[in-house]
Amino acid sequence: MSKKNDGSGLNSQLIRRPIQRWAPLFLLPVFAAFCIGFVWPFIQGIYLSFCNFNVPSDATWVGLKNYSKIWTDVGFWNAFKNTAGFAVVTIVLINVISFAIAYALTQKMRGANLFRTVFFMPNLIGGVVLGYIWSMIFDGILRGYATYLTANATYGFWGLVILVCWQQIGYMMIIYIAGLQAVPEDMLEAARIDGATNSQTLFRVIIPNVMPSITTCTFLTLTNGFKLFDQNLALTGGLPSIIENGAKINKTELLALNIYSTYNINKDWHGVAQAKAVIFFLLVAVLAIAQQAATRSKEVQQ
Amino acid sequence: MANKSNQPKIKQYSTASKILTAAFVVICLIWIMPIFEVVINSFKSNNAINLDVFALPGGDSFVGMDNYVKGMTFGNYPFLKSVGYSVYISIASTILILLFCSMAAWYIVRVQSKFANLFYYLCLFSMIVPFQMVMFTLTSTADSLKLNTPWTIPVIYLGFGAGLAIFMFVGFVKGLPLEIEEAAAIDGCGPVRTYFNVVLPMLKPTLISVGILELMWVWNDYLLPYLVLDITKYRTIPIHVQYLKGSYGTVDLGATMAVIMMAILPIIIVYLFCQKYIIKGVAAGAVKG
Prior knowledge:
The complex is a heterodimer of chains A (302) and B (289).
Chain A (H helix, E strand, L loop, with lengths): L6 H15 L1 H4 L1 H21 L2 E2 L7 E2 L3 H7 L2 H32 L6 H9 L6 H17 L9 H29 L3 H9 L4 H12 L1 H17 L2 H6 L5 E4 L2 E4 L4 H9 L6 H27 L6
Antiparallel strand pairs in A: 1-2, 3-4
Helix pairs in contact in A: 4-14, 5-8, 5-11, 5-13, 6-8, 7-8, 8-11, 11-14, 13-14
Chain B lengths: L14 H17 L1 H9 L4 H6 L14 H8 L5 H33 L2 H13 L4 H14 L8 H21 L4 H9 L4 H12 L1 H17 L2 H6 L8 H10 L6 H36 L1
């Protein structure tokens, strides 16, 4: 029975062509929704970034004017710096802590399942709700020092870091636990017999073997960090804001929120907001692809 | 030598492991502090919260169920209505995504036409596009197609969420043995019956994983429904919570915490019962992501 070899013949008759005749049922619904929910808005979004518009139907072509406006937009560059810093800090903190927790929980340890349940719990709560919970807590702590969360951009930044760590560590921990459990037992056994110390086993055997999990988690923390919106909006909403050279800067704004608030200034800024969104998309895409390429090359071939 | 793990093991915990457990008990208590704060503050008066967030309710500061009663109508919008919309939108969107994306994934893997492959690559591409890129245009598209009601918004979720779902389903369908479907076809099963009676049951574990990821996403999503829906009429729970702050100059923190408590308690209860599936779903989604 070597059916796989003559895949073009029998398979084609039995499986391929009959399914193809049902394309309107199998493919069309999701394809239509995908065009409405993604393809068309995406194409239109690129077009509108070169336009001045209030609603898409009254768009007039302005060339690169929107993009050149971004170049001098201090609020955007402030948000850019915030986002880059935020992404770096959260990638390192979340990955190191969640790996450490996962490593501890995969040792022989009483109550590991219960701890896992607790660490994952914050993930169930949406970003907006998280923002309100934490703003109450931070304000409660800072009140003791006669100040409040949105008084200082540094508080807002680190507050957001704490919030996002609390939310995402549990998620990444689950991925690391799955990775750690997949490390071949005989490899660990061999390391023990050869007299490897714990740290040698960790760095020479375990970490190379969980590289796929590390790839996934750095990818997720990177893109999550760059795309963060709800938490930012609900925790500080970008406050405090200052006026610098006649331009308003929201000190704790990240890129996604900056795009959103740019759109809400007035209709003259719609095109600029869309141009910012295009730049934002290119940035996320380049980073995601570069990160995948960089860590994939370090994975152990199996 | 492979049987080593099958030998009966006597469970014993070393001193180091006991210390580790003790340390984790403390860490976990700190970890659930924020949720604990929501619980205690939902029973305190607003003044008491403003005085000291961390004090336990008692005496004057304890207001019983007042905050919860206030919370039901807080923000000039009935809380239960937003729960209803959230439940409906999440469940309808998840069902749409599971059904149509698994069908499309099966089509893509089995037919492998140029068009199907192109569609698959577009889906992969959509996964790296941030929502901000399409949010304004998606909103106007939804308006002009009259998809801007809670009843039709699942179509938009199907469109924007198709990428991840199809990606995960394709990965799984590729591993399904062709022989079973061939046998069904030889026995006279058409593609529709083959799909629903043969393929779909085999996809069950992936359906659960994808379903949980999509459910968590739609349930907690704020911006898409906020932009697409007419929020004077339709609010989901995240929009409702956001508006507690938006509509009041000074926020009644007690009532806010009561609303938050009512919003997260059902999810936590569901989680405690189905955590096995949720954790599996997250791990499965990530390994392939």
